[in-house]
Amino acid sequence: SSCQQRLSYTTLSDLALALLDGTVFEIVQGLLEIQHLTEKNLYSQRLQLHSEHRGMKQELFHRHKEAQQCCRPHNLPLLRAAQQREMEAVEQRIREEQRMMDEKIVLELDQKVIDQQSTLEKAGVSGFYITTNPQELTLQMNLLELIRKLQQKEAEAKKAFP
Questions:
Q1: Which family does it belong to (predicted)?
Q2: Which of helix, strand or coil describes residue 21?
Q3: Is 92 within a domain?
Q4: Is residue 112 within 8 Å of 35, Cβ to Cβ?
Q5: CA distance linking residue 160 with residue 162, whole number of Å
Q6: Tell me: the pLDDT tens digits for 24-77?
Q7: 117 FRET partner, CA 20 to 30 A, in 41, 59, 70, 145?
């Protein structure tokens, strides 16, 4: 409801005019497909990193186990302490790499939002411009949802009345 209050009749009228020829629907559909591909790619990269980390930890665990089996009993406490430090260092490296990957993902998704805003602004879609203001982003997301619903209604109407 707060978004409805912020939408002027002029904005809605301009939006309706922009939607008349169907070009905006095609643009939004294209942006949605690009976003989904980007999200799948980023998710795949994150899974790959997770898999590499899991393999790294398993390899280290096996190395440690072999070393303990070959170790003389009186050296075992020293070996275990050294292995504990090594494991902690690997865990720290993994946390850092995951944090860096997550930051990369957030930055890439933020860039996608900027690209989408820019594309829609250039297409003359009322209400779209580059912003990081959370309220404006929410408004733009609601406008996109409205456009998608109108697009679905139009597609249903075309099926019903060919």
A1: Belongs to the gonadal family.
A2: coil
A3: yes
A4: yes
A5: 6
A6: 999 999 999 999 999 999 999 999 999 999 999 999 999 999 999 999 999 999
A7: 41
Q: Of the candidates 152, 126, 159, 150, which has an alpha carbon nearest to the alpha carbon of residue 140?
A: 126
- Could you list the residue range(s) of the whole structural domain that residue 102 is in? 22-146
> Which residue in 86, 101, 99 sits closest to 56, CA to CA?
86
Start-to-end Cα distance in the chain:
35
Phi, psi of 22 (to 5 degrees): 85, -10
Q: Is residue 155 part of a domain?
A: no
Instruction: Count up the domains in the chain and report the number.
Output: 1
27 within 8 A of 120, measured Cβ to Cβ: yes
Tens digit of pLDDT for each residue in 73-86? 999 999 999 999 99
The two counts, helices (H) then strands (E), for the chain are 5, 0
pTM: 0.80
| Tokens matching residue 65 | 């186990």
d(CA 135, CA 141): 10
